[in-house]
Amino acid sequence: MDRSDASLAVARERAKALGLGNLRFECLDVQHAPLSGTYDVIIATHSLVQSESDPGLPSHNWQTFERRKDPAAQADFEQRTGLKTRLDHLCQAITPTGRLFAFEKTRQLARRVPFQRALAARGLRLLEPPVPIRYRVVEEVADDGPLYVLTRAPGTGGSHVSLEWDENPEHHTEEECYRRRGEAAIAVWERLPDRVATCESHWIDPRFGSVHAEWGRAGGALAYLYVTVVDRFRGILVGIREAGIELTHRFGEALRETGMESGRFEALLDATWPTVTGQEDPAHTPLYEHHLASAQQVWSRLPERHVTKDSTNEEPDGRQKHVELGTIPGLVYLYWANTFDQRQLVMVEGQRASLLEDYYEELLHSGRQGSREGRDKP
Length: 378
Prior knowledge:
27% of the residues lie in helices and 32% in strands. It is of the alpha+beta class. It folds into three domains: 5-169, Rossmann fold (3-Layer(aba) Sandwich); 174-284, no CATH class; 288-376, no CATH class. A hairpin with a 3-residue loop joins strand 8 (209-218) and strand 9. It is globular and about 70 Å long. The model is unreliable at 368-378 (pLDDT under 50).
């Protein structure tokens, strides 16, 4: 099943090429047209949750990713997204020992959690760990899914042991490294306060010539790797404290080892420092930025954190947004978080503190309704 005729046309051709004759393809909205008959396997692609702008269920507060088990909120989510009727119709069409492959736009935790709870409430259980999917759409990279492999058949041990539903945000340690290339990389490296190189390496790449890698520390909390390739490439990785040191050394060693293997070095450079679309003003490039869920862990580990001002806005329904401006030795930081799992941590050197002060005010004015707290601190 799919909501795209073009996707089904491709699937039909591939099934024909493989000589598979026991397949049936349908393009329909299962909210209005339930399936006829029952099936051993149903593959549903973007067929269940079609309200892609729906924010999902909020967390307890801005400091956590946990959601209360609220039957009323769950029912409201299923109703307004159309999930309830669609999923019920699909479940009716699966044989008792059949499987459902479900692939939806539920990568965002606030949507993933209620989707998983809807699956579990109908007796569906995981046969395999859900798989996040990344694919390219024209020139953009899409992070989608996860892909779920499910059944309502009872577990019988072995490979059929049920897996636990995971309601935690995705976390990949590599995400904690901030990456810039070109003029932006040069600007970051030159502005790192109290920069001290702790290790350097130099080698000759067969295709690109002289390569120089510099590892170091800066600002009391930052670790960095700065790579230059003659006059054709500049790239910098910046991480926080011990985790940053480990990450930058891991990346650097991979680059150095790959540099000895002709043909792979350029690919690894591009994978480590993807090309940024659009123009970036080096004057406004921060020294560090992180805007995924793990930014909360990085923020919590900042050394000697001093909050200069903060504000927490709370809506009548309990949704919150927290904005915080502060300092750590040698650096100024801004952190904001809300109850829909958005996190952002930005750091600059003291000379450009006004950039974050302006951003702080911008965030306040973009969501001041229901302000519970907003104060300057000594």
